[in-house]
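Morning run. Coffee first, then this:
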Amino acid sequence: MQLLSLGYDCKVAWQIRRHSGQGEAFFFDWLMTPIDALAVMLGRDEDLLRDGRWELIKDDCCLRDLDTGLMFMHEFPSVPVVGGEQSHRILAEQVPAHLPIARAKFAYLRRKTLEFIRSSENLLLVRADEVATLDEAIANVNKMRSLFLPINPTLKFALASTLVPASGAVADTLIFKTDAGDDWRGGHESWSRLFEAATRRFAGQPA
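And here it is:
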């Protein structure tokens, strides 16, 4: 089974790499991606990271693209912060010059990721969302399904949350309760159980 991160944050890509050894970069791997921002995958390259359409948030450690809602913590020139809650501070004065570089990079990753989704067989799209109820989880999965199933009707979906009351599965979707863990990467054993459950349910399953 192939795996692809749909965010929300970096831990999904990190856990996929830990589990599978996959090291190839895709669009959502190291971004913070609200559920509505997933629609960027079907957008235009020129609508991403436009001049003047950004702001620094979270004590300047994160840049938010105002048009898509995507949040970039690792892309723009920054300096380390010692003794604060944030590890670094983005240099606002250097953002405008870096925008064309970042725009070209993520335009390439968008096209690469879209082609990977379109052409892959037995692909599981994985997302983490801190939703507290199964109804909320299902609503977010349905947003994912509406965006990506028209591209590839064989896709499978997994949504991880530390807050849902229990794990469950239906049709092409796995909703899984994971553990918070000790840091941003989440609970490793619970993520291993998620991938194992997805493999049991979906690997080799006909479309």
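The radius of gyration is 17 Å. Good start to the day.
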